[in-house]
């Protein structure tokens, strides 16, 4: 029915009415909070490109994880800053590596909090690439799979609740599923970074994780930002290999991909609201161009509306507090 019988503003008249018919709900339970973990004790290293985010020693990560849990955030993601790197990234699968130590410490202190270590080699390799290199300088896909499998099993032994491979090697989900099952971790789910684009929005993260490639770039394994159909193929292959959840990364430039992935798979879809997206909002808010609270909550709601069930975001703690204040 057309105007005047239909008046769309009727249900927008008051806050209570708007809340009653709101289609997309945002809750702290939708968030995963990432941490950058470094060796030592009582260390807090601010990250210039990401105001409010720091590299933290394990003691501070444990405390911050507890604060996140108290806000209703159900999960944290860990990125390790090792004290040693080599060509193979051996620190990634070291049972006494930084992520493994942090995982055990968080699970001891907060057993109900989900701990999701990022699974990749780039933070641990001397060259900064996500796999081992061939003599010609290209990443060797199949040789990297064995090392990723070792890392997955090591993270599982440390108490990880979810395995989250971000490397974008072909076939890695199936290899990890087989390695985890063989090691007795058949019940451990895999969250695959399935549609991970070679994005300009990762810049601040690479400063934070000290993981910028020493040469070249990652376009031979991360996806071309121009391709949407290819993203669906990547996701379908990961699902076929045993992924329990799938991810689209970054979030805001790829809302269309999030929607298509959700409609295609009906699996839990995770979106990563990445460092560059975070840094843009922080910079604009600091300059007085945006209301940070309103912008962040609108952004996260849009990501949920697009089809994401879960959002990895550096805004998680602030957003959780703002949502509490609104109730």
Automatic annotation (TrEMBL):
Ranges in a coiled coil: none
Binding locations of Mg(2+): 234
Quaternary context: Homooctamer.
Highest taxon of source: Bacteria
Entry EC no(s): 4.2.1.24
GO molecular function terms noted in the UniProt entry: porphobilinogen synthase activity; zinc ion binding
Parts of the chain that traverse the membrane: none
Catalytic activity: 2 5-aminolevulinate = porphobilinogen + 2 H2O + H(+)
Pathway assigned in UniProt: Porphyrin-containing compound metabolism; protoporphyrin-IX biosynthesis; coproporphyrinogen-III from 5-aminolevulinate: step 1/4
Record's protein name: Delta-aminolevulinic acid dehydratase
Protein family membership: Belongs to the ALAD family.
Binding site for 5-aminolevulinate 2: 275, 314
Binding site for Zn(2+): 120, 122, 130
GO biological processes: protoporphyrinogen IX biosynthetic process
Annotated binding of 5-aminolevulinate 1, by residue: 206, 218
Organism for this UniProt entry: Conexibacter arvalis
Cited function: Catalyzes an early step in the biosynthesis of tetrapyrroles. Binds two molecules of 5-aminolevulinate per subunit, each at a distinct site, and catalyzes their condensation to form porphobilinogen.
Class of this enzyme: lyase
């Amino acid at each position: 029915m057309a105007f005047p019988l239909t008046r769309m503003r009727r249900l927008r008249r008051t806050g209570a009415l708007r809340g009653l018919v709101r289609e997309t709900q945002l809750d702290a339970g939708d968030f995963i909070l990432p941490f950058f973990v470094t060796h030592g004790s009582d260390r807090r290293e601010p990250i210039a490109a990401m105001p409010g985010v720091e590299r933290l020693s394990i003691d501070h990560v444990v405390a911050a994880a507890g604060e996140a849990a108290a806000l209703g955030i159900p999960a944290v993601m860990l990125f390790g800053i090792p004290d040693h790197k080599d060509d193979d990234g051996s620190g990634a699968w070291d049972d006494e590596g930084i992520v493994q130590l942090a995982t055990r410490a968080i699970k001891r202190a907060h057993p109900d909090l989900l701990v999701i270590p990022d699974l990749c080699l780039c933070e641990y390799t001397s060259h900064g690439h996500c796999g081992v290199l061939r003599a010609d300088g290209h990443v060797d896909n199949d040789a990297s799979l064995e090392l990723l499998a070792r890392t997955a099993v090591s993270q599982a032994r440390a108490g990880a609740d979810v395995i989250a491979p971000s490397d974008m090697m072909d076939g890695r989900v199936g290899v990890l599923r087989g390695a985890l099952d063989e090691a007795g971790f058949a019940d451990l789910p895999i969250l695959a970074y399935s549609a991970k684009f070679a994005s300009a929005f990762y810049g601040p993260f690479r400063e934070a994780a000290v993981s910028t490639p020493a040469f070249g770039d990652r376009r031979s394994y991360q996806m071309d930002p121009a391709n949407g159909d290819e993203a669906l193929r990547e996701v379908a292959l990961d699902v076929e290999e045993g992924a329990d959840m799938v991810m689209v990364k970054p979030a805001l430039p790829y809302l269309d991909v999030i929607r298509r992935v959700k409609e295609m798979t009906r699996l839990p879809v995770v979106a990563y609201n990445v460092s560059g997206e975070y840094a843009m909002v922080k910079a604009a808010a600091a300059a007085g161009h945006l209301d940070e609270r309103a912008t962040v909550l609108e952004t996260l709601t849009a990501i949920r509306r697009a089809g994401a069930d879960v959002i990895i975001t550096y805004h998680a703690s602030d957003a959780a507090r703002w949502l509490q204040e609104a109730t």
